[in-house]
Amino acid sequence: xxxxxxxxxxxxxxxxxxxxxxxxxxxxxxxxxxxxxxxxxxxxxxxxxxxxxxxxxxxxxxxxxxxxxxxxxxxxxxxxxxxxxxxxxxxxxxxxxxxxxxxxxxxxxxxxxxxxxxxxxxxxxxxxxxxxxxxxxxxxxxxxxxxxxxxxxxxxxxxxxxxxxxxxxxxxxxxxxxxxxxxxxxxxxxxxxxxxxxxxxxxxxxxxxxxxxxxxxxxxxxxxxxxxxxxxxxxxxxxxxxxxxxxxxxxxxxxxxxxxxxxxxxxxxxxxxxxxxxxxxxxxxxxxxxxxxxxxxxxxxxxxxxxxxxxxxxxxxxxxxxxxxxxxxxxxxxxxxxxxxxxxxxxxxxxxxxxxxxxxxxxxxxxxxxxxxxxxxxxxxxxxxxxxxxxxxxxxxxxxxxxxxxxxxxxxxxxxxxxxxxxxxxxxxxxxxxxxxxxxxxxxxxxxxxxxxxxxxxxxxxxxxxxxxxxxxxxxxxxxxxxxxxxxxxxxxxxxxxxxxxxxxxxxxxxxxxxxxx
Length: 518
Known about the structure:
Elements: H1 2-10, H2 17-30, H3 40-55, H4 60-78, H5 84-87, H6 90-93, H7 97-122, H8 126-146, H9 169-190, H10 196-219, E1 230-235, H11 246-261, E2 273-275, H12 291-299, E3 304-312, E4 315-323, E5 329-334, H13 348-352, E6 376-377, E7 383-388, E8 407-412, H14 422-437, E9 441-445, E10 450-453, E11 459-463, E12 469-474, H15 483-487, H16 490-507
Parallel strand pairs: 1-2, 2-3, 7-8, 8-9
Antiparallel strand pairs: 1-12, 3-4, 4-5, 6-7, 9-10, 10-11
Helix pairs in contact: 2-3, 2-4, 3-8, 3-9, 4-7, 7-8, 7-16, 8-9, 8-16, 9-10, 9-14, 11-12
C-alpha cells in the first residue's frame, strides 16, 4: 500500500504532448462511427487502439489525461455542429460559438477521463486496466445519460445504428450496447500475451454472433396492423434564420396549409392524421387570431397534430396539440424535458425569487416544463407517445407512461443544427428508440429528416434535409414489448457497478503467472 502511494506521488501530472495528441486523434477517428458516416469498421479498431494505448500507461494520472484527450478530440469531431445555433444570428451570437465548442468538448473529455480513470483505479496491470477502462467507459456513458438532466448523445454504442448489431438494443438498450462495444474493443488489450490471431478470433466471433442475431431479428415476420392507419407528415422547410421574420412567417405558414390540403397520390387513401413539426405556426395556441380556423380548413375534416407554442399567465410552453375538425383541442402535450441553456436557464425561477428575473421561465424568459410524460388518446389511432425534439434522445422517458403506447410521434425543428451531422445524429437516435421499444416512430421535422421508422428501426419512407414536401405513409405494425422496454437501464447500470467493484477487489488480491498484479 505504501509503495502504491509513493508511486502515485511520483506519477507525472500528464503524459507527453505527443501522447495527448495521439489520444485526441483516436477520438477524432472514433467519431467516424457516428452519423452521418456510420463507419463502425473504423471506429471499433480505433477504440481498441485507444484502450490498448491507455491501459499500457503505468500511472493513473496519465491514463486519466489520455481519456480526457480522447474525449476532447471525439467531441470536436462528432459534435462540431454545436456551433450552428449561434450562427443563426451570427452578428449577435457568433462570437460565442468557439467558446461553446471548446467548453462542450472539455465536458465530454471530463466524462471520458472519468471512464478511463475508473479503469486505471480498478485494474492494476495492463490486462485488468483494459477491462477496467471498458467498464469505466460504460459507467461514463451511463453517468452522462442521467446527470444534470442527462445528455446521452453520441454514446459509444451508437456507432451501430443502421447496422444489424443495433437490434441488440431491443434486449440491452443503449447502455448495454455501449458495454458490449467496449468489451469487444478491449478484448485485444485484455488478452495481451496471447497470440494475436486468438484475440482477433474472439473479437470476430462476438461481432459475427451479434451481426447474425441482428439479421435474424430483422428477417423475422411481423403480423400486420389490424386496421391500416395513414399519416401525412408535412415538412415546410423554413430556415431558422428566416422563420420568424415578419416578411416570411406567413409565407411559411401558407406552405403548411398548401401541403396539408394537397390531394393524396392517385390510388392512395386519405390520411387519418396530419402532422406538422415543432413550433410550426406563427401564433400562440391560446391566441390563434384565426390561425386554428385556417389550419383545420386546410386539413379538410382530418385531425391535425401541430407543434405550437402556448402561454399560461406569465409562462410559455413548447407544445404538441391535436386539433379536431371543429377547432377544438382534442389532446395536448407540453414538452417536459427541456434543453438546458437553449430552452430554459437552470435555476432561473429560483433566481427570480431574489429579484433576478432575466432568466426566469415564469416571466417568459424561456419555456416552462410540462408536468411529465403523457400519452395522447387519439381514439381509433391509438395511444401515442409524443416526443418534442430533444426528448427523443432519452430512452428512459419512454418508460414513464402508465401503459404501453401504440406508436411514437416525434415533432422536431432540426434547422438549429445545420446540415452536416447534427440532424442526422438526432435522426439516428429516433431509429434506436423504435428498436428499443419495438414501436414504430413517425418523425416530422421542419427542415428534415422527416421519416417513418418501423418497429425494428428501418426507414420505410423519408424526406431529406432542406426539402419542402409531404409524406403520405402507412403506420407500420408494433411488436410485442421488448426486454429493454420492460427492464430499462437499471440492470445494466447495476451490472457495470458490480463488475467494476469485483474487478477492483480481484486485482488487489490476485497475482498473474509473471509475478505482477494482473
